[in-house]
Amino acid sequence: MLVIVKSAPDTAEGERGVKFARDMAADLILLQNGVYFAQKERLGGYCGTAYVLDEDKRLRGLKDTELEDDIRAIDYEKLTELMAESDKVVGMF
Amino acid sequence: MSTLAMILRRSPYGDINAAEAVRHAMGGAADELKIDLILVDSGVLLAKKGQDDAGTGFTNLGSVLQDCIDMGVNVYADKLSIRTQHIDSEDILEGVKVAGSSEIAEIVKEAKTTMIF
Amino acid sequence: MTKTLTLFLSTSPYSYENTSTAVRIAESALGKGHTVNLIASGDGIYCFLKGQKAKGITNAEEKFSELIGKGLRVYL
Q: What ipTM goes with this model?
């Protein structure tokens, strides 16, 4: 299962999306303002695979050194591949 | 000359607020108004260096903010918000003044009009 | 294997980043041969008005017209 989060960490929507992903052991895709969840120490307790949309991260000036090491940067091609392969896509929060 | 204070509370790109704030700030500066643009909460992310709009279809709002500064707009970023947004003061565009809550309160108090984005 | 992706767009074209995200996802999925539906609801229907003049941001009319030409199925 995939959960897509587009809202920032300081919003109820963003927090809810990440909590859902955590509780359902789903993979997490961060785009739009959701990319700020990829900053260090923002995803405490999340153990699944997290992806961040590279284009939205670059647009906001986020550098790789500011992000958690194990978050994978993806493009739209990889995003739609993940969406098509997943049994269920939930979001966007 | 009366001052117009604009407070931006929202991060750039996710919604139109940051784009509107800089658009109105530029308009005010072009009309020779004194503009104070105050970035608070996730609004401080507008001042982050290194925004790269290549291939996105978006206007680079970091560059537009720099244009505002060059046109004489006073841009302030709230010190506490910078910390809560997990960014370093070194990552803030040159020309943006980092200000504490009491300094920001004083600026808003002095302004004739305040717009909130 | 081709799949069907259905996107739901409920926000106006220029107040949020959702227009751009929907366009880019649809563009990529159509390029891979998937079927893509887009359901526009509420303010999302404004993305499909004629005569839009947006610059410096994804022009919804232009991009969605282009994607409809590539097979995007839009339901208002």
A: 0.93
